[in-house]
Design brief:
Elements lengths: L1 H11 L4 H26 L5 H27 L13 H28 L9 H6 L4 H35 L1 H14 L7 H18 L3 H20 L3
């Protein structure tokens, strides 16, 4: 019965390679256009931090519009993207265990890089946004990282990209590719590996429960804790 449900799920959510390329191309274009637009404005306006927040909000808004456009064109329901109800309270212990695992890997990775003399650059956008936070910038960080990003990115990277790649490449290849794309599009070399691991864990949750809610919960928890830790550090 479970295999039949999964088969019907994949069939209904089928995308051609052309569709997938268009979606991925749209994502890349959004990041590139907004990045160049932000740099262009930075040369003409001194409020760098404001422009970075504007870029973050516009990025999430643009990705949400891409999802909505695809929904309208394909006539999908939100459930086809993975927005299905699950007993989240019962899954909370599992989510917390996986979250702890990702942090163990993150800490081990950071220690390894630190011992080899590698640390995040002071010019890194995440360092600038998360560090030295005032109360209002902290709220903005929590809204962007803890609420908007998990909802939009899980719908896009797990619900659409991973969900549709399975029809062509199988579960594991699709999991690796979608996690790599998810990590690479954050444009942060220092954090590529831990974010890739996070992407794999999020794929696991989505595939196991056929719902975005567990993945969104873990993604949001990870971002909120990271934001609070970064805000308290003397960066």
């Amino acid at each position: 019965m479970n295999e039949e449900i999964q088969s019907n799920f994949l069939l209904k959510r089928y995308l051609s390679w052309v569709d997938l390329v268009i979606v991925l191309g749209g994502i890349v274009c959004i990041y590139i256009i907004l990045a160049f637009g932000t740099f262009w404005l930075m040369e003409r306006w001194p409020y760098e931090r404001f422009l970075m927040y504007l870029n973050a909000f516009l990025t999430q808004l643009s990705l949400a519009l891409l999802i909505w456009t695809m929904k309208r064109i394909r006539h999908w329901e939100w459930a086809d993207f993975g927005w299905r109800s699950v007993p989240l309270k019962k899954l909370l212990p599992k989510i917390l265990k996986l979250y702890a695992l990702t942090w163990i890997i993150n800490i081990s990775y950071a220690i390894f890089l630190y011992r080899h003399g590698l640390t995040p650059s002071d010019t890194d956008v995440y360092v600038k946004l998360l560090g030295q936070a005032t109360w209002y910038s902290l709220i903005l960080n929590l809204v962007i990282a803890g609420v908007l990003a998990p909802m939009v990115e899980e719908t896009l990277f797990r619900g659409i990209i991973f969900g549709c790649l399975q029809a062509y490449l199988g579960k594991w290849t699709s999991a690796v590719l979608s996690a790599m794309i998810f990590s690479a599009l954050h444009f942060q070399a220092y954090g590529f590996f831990p974010r890739f691991i996070l992407g794999m864990v999020l794929v696991y949750l989505y595939d196991k429960y056929k719902s975005l809610y567990p993945a969104i919960a873990l993604h949001g928890l990870n971002n909120i804790v990271a934001t609070l830790i970064a805000a308290s550090l003397p960066i």
